[in-house]
Design a protein that fits this description.
Elements: E1 2-3, H1 9-20, H2 26-37, E2 44-45, H3 50-62, H4 66-76, H5 85-100, E3 104-110, E4 117-129, E5 133-134, E6 137-139, E7 150-152, E8 155-157, H6 164-167, E9 178-181, H7 200-207, H8 226-250, E10 254-258, E11 284-287, H9 289-300, E12 306-316, E13 323-329, E14 340-346, H10 356-375, E15 383-389, H11 392-395, H12 397-406, E16 422-427, E17 435-439, H13 447-454, E18 464-466, H14 475-480, E19 485-490, H15 495-499, H16 512-531
Parallel strand pairs: 8-9, 9-10, 10-11, 14-15, 14-16, 16-19, 17-18
Antiparallel strand pairs: 1-2, 3-13, 4-5, 4-12, 6-11, 7-12, 13-15, 17-19
């Protein structure tokens, strides 16, 4: 650790030697000047190793493998829903790849909770009358297959809420029916761009914040803690179970929803709470908003549309599919090697598209960051550990399991062995846009540290620090355990408009230079956090 320089001794000596070398009061005058210019209580400056950063940049910019990793994750292995055979096969590849880079302790860490996986073998939906037309349809995950091919005229529940009280009036009317549920979204011309980068105004609005929960132009206000969110999900799951059971009891054949994205983009999720319980919901699909709207408008005119659909799906109970993937570069300092600096990204994706921006990009960046550091032969004081998480898309299942087993209970505050040893956790999961800075997650004590670590990348437009909280990904589980845990600020690109949880989440929307940029910055952060004399400061617990 070094004090911040103000005016160097060498500079002062040269000035006074030339002008006052023969003056009788030379020593008294110099003493007074040095007293006036001596810095008092200035913050310590991070010991930024520019030589190592230069090597990181050379390896990461000129010899990158990040796009190759991304292509294997997306083009070769494709979507990998939690608990599915595809997830396991991709995890086996990632493990073998990191072993080939000579990373240490590459291993699977099996989840404790028994969670069901799901996969679709075959599905389709078409209009067969009054004319033939293929519908752009994807099934909801964790829903049951149909009993063969189902044909019928849609039963439209227009504008009803997904609540048991609102559905009771339909009792006895749904046997064998194909239900079109909800209204299509209003469609209109789009005048703003699908893809964008943050503007200076956007970023300045975040920099100026003084309260972590305040809203900025880059991130909405966060009102719930992760523990509050998890507890509220339990209540939601109970309500969902009641609704799903209603449709099962009524004998409905299938339920169809409009996509929440326009422009023919299909945005799909899943009934992931049913991976925990015993309910296996009736087959459910999402179709394009525009096609849903057309069928609904025809029904309003009394014109019938006959639909044919099928879904062949399978639930999976194999415990091998419920795993996190871990890898390390071991620390070498005798007193610090038991401490950990951790990087993470969620390995699971939804089952449409190939999960390129959510979150193969984050996985590829984190894997590449460790590959870079291993390739240039760094010897960190602390152990660097990578966690590729299971089930973030469902309820942070993988990171929650890791924290529960090794760090502590986020609800009771019980501590376990790694809590005092975990110096920091860094996460990438905001699409594939380039890193512009980092969310401090309310931890003001790390601001001067991260400011110094970002300085070598200012010329790459990575210079933003905001006290703001950001939500919706695995760093929250570590933060809830009072581990210094952070998510990087990334340009949005097409994330919220095209790719997020959609069939368009494919590698074509990933920019190679942004990926290299991200891997280099993450590698530099990991290296310097592992080499600090002290662990990162934690937030004050009140």
């Amino acid at each position: 650790m070094k004090d911040r320089p103000t005016f160097t001794t060498v500079t002062l000596r040269s000035i006074f030697h030339s002008r006052f070398s023969t003056h009788p009061l030379r020593h008294t005058f110099l003493a007074q000047v040095f007293i006036l210019l001596t810095p008092f209580n200035l913050p310590a400056q991070e010991d930024v190793d520019h030589a190592v950063i230069a090597r990181i940049k050379e390896e990461g910019f000129q010899h990158s493998q990040v796009m190759s990793t991304l292509s294997y994750l997306t083009d070769v292995h494709g979507p990998r829903l939690s608990g599915s055979p595809a997830y396991y096969e991709a995890a086996q590849w990632a493990k073998a790849e990191m072993e080939s880079w000579d990373l240490s302790n590459v291993r699977f860490d099996q989840l404790t909770e028994e969670l069901r996986g799901w996969s679709a073998q075959s599905y389709s939906m078409t209009i067969i009358k009054p004319h033939y037309e293929t519908l752009f349809a994807y099934p909801y995950a964790w829903t049951s297959g149909t009993k063969g091919t189902v044909t019928g005229v849609p039963f439209i529940m227009d504008g009803e809420h997904w609540q048991i009280d609102s559905l009771a009036r339909y009792s006895g009317k749904l046997e064998g029916r194909i239900i079109f549920f909800d209204k299509s979204r209003e469609y209109g011309p789009r005048f703003d761009a699908f893809a964008r980068r943050f503007t200076d105004d956007d970023l300045e609005s975040a920099v100026a914040l003084i309260d972590p929960a305040m809203e900025s132009k880059i991130e909405g206000e966060t009102t719930k803690t992760v523990t509050e969110a998890i507890e509220s999900w339990a209540d939601w799951r109970q309500k969902e179970t009641e609704v799903e059971q209603f449709f099962l009891d009524e004998g409905a054949s299938a339920i169809v929803f409009p996509s929440s994205f326009n422009h023919g983009i299909i945005r799909v999720g899943g009934k992931y709470f049913d991976a925990i319980g015993e309910i296996k919901p009736v087959a459910q699909f999402v179709i394009s908003n525009e096609q849903f709207g057309r069928i609904a408008r025809r029904a309003e005119k009394g014109i019938e549309t006959e639909i044919e659909l099928h879904l062949e799906a399978q639930f999976h109970e194999d415990p091998r599919y419920r795993i996190n993937v871990l890898a390390e570069i071991p620390g070498v300092d005798r007193s610090l090697k038991s401490e950990i600096v951790m990087a993470g990204a969620h390995f699971d994706t939804w089952h449409t598209g190939t999960g390129a921006t959510d979150n193969s990009a984050g996985v590829a960046v984190m894997m590449e960051a460790l590959r870079i550091l291993k390739s240039i032969g760094i010897k960190p004081k602390r152990t660097l550990r990578l966690g590729l998480w299971y089930g973030e898309e469902q309820a942070y299942w993988g990171s929650r399991d890791y924290v529960d087993k090794y760090i502590g209970d986020i609800f009771t505050g019980e501590s376990k062995s790694e809590k005092k040893k975990m110096s920091a956790y860094l996460n990438v999961d905001n699409g594939s846009g380039k890193i512009r800075g980092i969310y401090l997650q309310g931890n003001e004590a790390v601001r001067p540290i991260f400011s110094d670590l970002l300085e070598p990348f200012h010329y790459l437009d990575a210079n933003v620090l905001t006290v703001q909280n950001t939500s919706g990904t695995d760093h929250l589980i570590f933060d809830a355990s009072n581990i210094p845990a952070f998510q990087f600020i990334q340009d949005p690109l097409n994330y919220g408009t095209v790719t997020h949880h959609s069939n368009m989440d494919v590698a074509d929307y990933v920019i190679e230079d942004d990926m290299k940029h991200n891997a280099v910055i993450v590698a530099s952060f990991l290296y310097h956090l592992a080499m600090r004399d002290e662990m990162l400061p934690r937030k004050t617990v009140k």
